[in-house]
Design brief:
Length: 136
């Protein structure tokens, strides 16, 4: 069992690079990674990192990198296994809607067509305890 005492969010990186590629019908294939860890006693984090990178095989007009972190403070003595499970599952569910909003906001603020990640069942984003997923 665990009890969250305090929650805060921070953005470690927001980056957008215009590749100046013209055309239509680009395929968006964002890579989303998850990182979890301990900051100090009773304070842990869960990060979602979104990357869109243009390649020769799959060109895309812009490169994007967003690193969004949730910081969670738990009660002293809380079960570490329960906390780790929370960081890998429920924390991702909490963070994902913010990540979607950041992506859309970042592209529209840059005066580009908005990129909107689909609504999805986030519990299936990282199956089998994987740390990286691709959204099609």
């Amino acid at each position: 069992m665990y009890q969250i005492m305090k929650t805060s969010f921070t953005t470690d990186k927001l980056e957008i690079i215009n590749n100046h590629i013209r055309g239509k019908n680009f395929k968006l294939k964002p890579k989303i990674s998850r990182k979890t860890g301990k900051i100090k006693e009773n304070v842990f984090f869960s990060s979602l990192i979104l990357q869109v990178t243009s390649t020769k095989e799959e060109p895309f007009p812009i490169d994007i990198h967003i690193d969004f972190k949730g910081i969670f403070e738990f009660s002293p003595g809380d079960n570490q296994d329960d906390i780790l499970h929370f960081l890998k599952t429920e924390a991702v569910t909490i963070l994902f809607p913010y990540l979607r909003t950041m992506l859309t906001s970042l592209t529209t603020t840059a005066m580009l067509p908005p990129i909107i990640l689909p609504v999805m069942d986030v519990s299936k984003l990282f199956p089998d305890d994987r740390e990286t997923a691709y959204v099609n």
